[in-house]
Amino acid sequence: MYLEDIAAKIKSYQTEVLSIHAVQAPIANNEFRVWGKEIAEFAKTLRAKVITVHPENMNKTEFKQDQAAKNIRFLNRLYNENVIFSVETFTGNRRVFTPDETVGFGLPMTLDIAHVTDNQKIWELLKSYNRNIVNIHLSAKGKDRHHLPIDGFCKEVVAYLTESGWEGNVILEYLPEFHDQMLIDIEILRNMAGA
Fold first, then answer.
1. What's the rounded Cα separation, in Å, for the pair 67 and 105?
2. Diameter of the chain by CA atoms?
3. Side-chain half-sphere CA neighbours of 125 within 13 A
4. What are the domain boundaries of the chain?
5. What are phi and psi of 32, to 5 degrees?
6. How far is the C-alpha of 28 from the C-alpha of 74, rounded, in Å?
7. C-alpha distances in angstroms, 18 versus 61, 169, 172?
8. What is the pLDDT along the chain (195 residues), one digit of tens a residue?
9. Which CATH superfamily, name and number, covers 1-107?
10. CA distances from 12 to 8, 46, 68 (A)
11. Are strands 84-88 and 50-53 parallel, antiparallel or unpaired?
């Protein structure tokens, strides 16, 4: 199957697609511009506005960071922001962008609540960078595991997003063993947001 076949299959389910999670995109490589166009066309076919990319692990240099930022900006301009490439938050100094570096470059962000271990940092990002946050990957985190069903902190985040009038996608991202909890949690969140 290629992207057209995958899109046709997804459309056959009559499912609304909010975001594409393109985790293997080497954003610091110029080939990303070619690959990015393909995935952007795929997103447009599905009427998804956001494409989330992971900041790859590498021996980070200013040149590689600049190249990655230029690639993302190039594609966002090319698609006139009808499709938005955003960088998911990951900590770790080997990532081409940490959350603070994503902010420093002014790039669209997918804030993954489970990837940022410091809840104060999450609040800081939500309050100071919320206009550039286009997706929230929502799940709880434990000591040794991430992407657990929502907890009280996740509900506080959703309450804040609702109260602040934030407009973006909230995507539940759970480990497979918790997928049966997703529909229940979606209803809880819908009720909280008044949707």
1. 11
2. 46
3. 30
4. 1-107, 114-195
5. -60, -30
6. 12
7. 33, 7, 12
8. 588 999 999 999 999 999 999 887 789 998 999 999 999 999 999 999 999 999 998 889 999 999 999 999 999 999 997 999 999 999 888 999 999 999 999 999 999 999 999 999 999 999 999 999 999 999 999 989 999 999 999 999 999 999 999 999 999 999 999 999 999 999 999 998 776
9. Divalent-metal-dependent TIM barrel enzymes (3.20.20.150)
10. 6, 11, 35
11. parallel
- Written as six digits, the tokens of 154 are 């996740």
Using CA atoms, how far apart are residues 17 and 2, in angstroms rounded to an integer?
Answer: 18
Distances (CA, A) of 66 to 33, 74, 100, 109: 14, 12, 15, 16
Give the CA count within 13 Å in the CB-facing half-sphere of 104. 9
What is the rounded end-to-end Cα distance, in angstroms, of the chain?
A: 36
CB 27 within 8 A of CB 52: no
Pairing of strands 146-148, 140-141: antiparallel
Q: What CA–CA distance (Å, rounded) separates 36 from 53?
A: 10
